[in-house]
Design brief:
By secondary structure, the protein is mainly alpha-helical. The chain is about 70% helix and about 0% strand. The protein contains 25 helices and no strands. It is globular, with a radius of gyration of 24 Å. The C terminus is likely disordered.
């Protein structure tokens, strides 16, 4: 009897220890994602810092560029415009590489585990921030190396954090949405860089080395809070699959031992592979919504600085203040995203109808907010700056947290990496539209043309095809 009590106490003690370790991991990974996960979207804050270091500011660059332009183009494009265009291209490259490689990273996480993939991210992280530390006139192209590799590192950090939410059962939607909020609010760090550099308290090179040293945090979290498929140094607990077992249909065999007793062709029939979930109408709808509804926020991040610079009549100080406010506003996502995750998971374990209602409500609200955002950004007027800033923050936080919470909650944990990766790759493919649309914003008064194109993608009929 005493032996049973002792064993019961030991088991309870382990459960408490595991629970503390899991939630400690959430806090650690939250800080990690916030510091390193989605910083690329705040890169426009450096658009007026980089010229101080002469990046793409050499006279030979400007002269050769202007010689290739027509006379009408010469009147519109100065050396300053040439620099800004390079910074925008570097930003767009970073955003695309933050999303498109997910289709490879996701399956790699499912195949090798979060820890293995994150160790690779540490290498990318060091290369990316070392490149920014070494960027200088004559080494201008290192700016592209920075945005590319820091984005690759950032998306791996984010996807591994999302996957770690499967260590939980009911709080899974909340945890995944919390990481989405951390990623969205990460854009503020470049603005903090801008303020510190303008105040002459630190240099861009010093900040880059500081951020590069955060690779140590990634190394620690890889071994303490994440696991891999190799049978060495494993975590004492695994993914929590309670919700998935509840969701299984009556005829499905969930017990692996029972499944092994079946003949090989029966096992194939019983198992549902990743393609079953990749072609799920719900999954396709989530991808479509995220890909299209995230486009306004991403496009605004790329065009924000020149848009505000024109509206403020080339007032650099005021433009920098608005850009700082734009990036700082994303910190509200820390509250908005978990709230969305909580609402999405509200009573979702009781019935399928409640799940679908929660998803429909979230997607409808996101769709309406994005339509308003497109209309606001069509007008290059000072009174539209603050509304664009506020609406962008709410819209992006709502659609990102909601979509990720749906994938983390309603699909099997064994495929969570692949499903998340494919979803973000689809977003990256749509994001490539920016390369063409950015050209339509060279003349700011006529930049509304780009927003009309984006608005046209928000037609309800497109989504109804998948709903049906």
């Amino acid at each position: 009897m005493k032996m049973k009590d002792t064993n019961t106490t030991t088991i309870k003690g382990k459960k408490v220890h595991y629970r503390i370790r899991k939630w400690s991991g959430v806090v650690w990974l939250f800080l990690e994602v916030n510091l390193l996960g989605g910083t690329i979207f705040g890169f426009p804050a450096l658009f007026k810092i980089l010229p101080q270091y002469g990046i793409y500011g050499g006279s030979s660059h400007c002269v050769s560029e202007l010689l290739n332009m027509t006379e009408s183009d010469n009147r519109q494009l100065s050396c300053e415009g040439y620099q800004t265009r390079h910074y925008q291209n570097a930003l767009t490259l970073g955003i695309i590489l933050f999303e498109i490689p997910s289709v490879v990273i996701g399956p790699a996480i499912d195949r090798f585990g979060c820890r293995f993939v994150k160790l690779i991210a540490i290498v990318f992280h060091i290369i990316g921030w070392l490149a920014l530390a070494l960027v200088a006139p004559g080494r201008d192209s290192l700016l592209y190396v920075h945005t590319a590799f820091s984005s690759l590192s950032g998306i791996i950090i984010l996807l591994t954090a999302y996957t770690s939410s499967d260590y939980f059962s009911k709080p899974r939607a909340f945890v995944s949405a919390l990481f989405a909020g951390a990623c969205t609010s990460a854009t503020l760090w470049y603005s903090i860089f801008q303020k510190l550099i303008d105040a002459r308290k630190i240099t861009l090179q010093q900040l880059s080395y500081i951020w590069m040293s955060f690779g140590i945090l990634m190394l620690i979290s890889s071994f303490i809070f994440l696991d891999w498929r190799f049978s060495i140094l494993n975590l004492p607990y695994q993914f929590n699959t309670k919700l998935e077992k509840k969701a299984l249909p009556p005829n499905t065999i969930a017990d692996d031992g029972e499944l092994e007793k079946l003949k090989w062709y029966a096992r194939i029939f019983q198992r549902k592979g990743v393609w079953h979930y990749l072609t799920s109408p719900l999954y396709l709808l989530v991808i479509l919504f995220l890909s299209v509804l995230l486009l306004p926020g991403i496009f605004l991040a790329v065009t924000w600085y020149p848009w505000v610079y024109y509206i403020t009549k080339q007032d650099i100080t005021l433009t920098n203040q608005y850009t700082f406010a734009f990036n700082l506003s994303t910190s509200a996502a820390i509250i908005i995203c978990p709230l969305n995750g909580f609402l999405l998971g509200f009573k979702a374990d009781r019935s399928k109808k409640q799940k679908l209602f929660n998803i429909s409500l979230m997607q409808t609200v996101s769709w309406l907010i994005n339509i308003v955002a497109c209309f606001v950004c069509m007008f290059a007027q000072k009174k539209m700056i603050i509304p664009a800033l506020v609406i962008n923050c709410i819209a992006r936080a709502t659609i990102v947290s909601g979509s990720q919470a749906v994938v983390a909650t309603f699909f099997p944990s064994e495929y969570i990496g692949t499903l998340t990766g494919v979803m973000w790759t689809a977003v990256g493919v749509i994001t490539t539209i920016q390369y063409g649309l950015v050209q339509l914003t060279n003349d700011i008064p006529r930049s509304w043309r780009a927003w009309v194109i984006i608005l046209s993608l928000h037609k309800p009929k497109i989504y109804m095809i998948f709903i049906e």
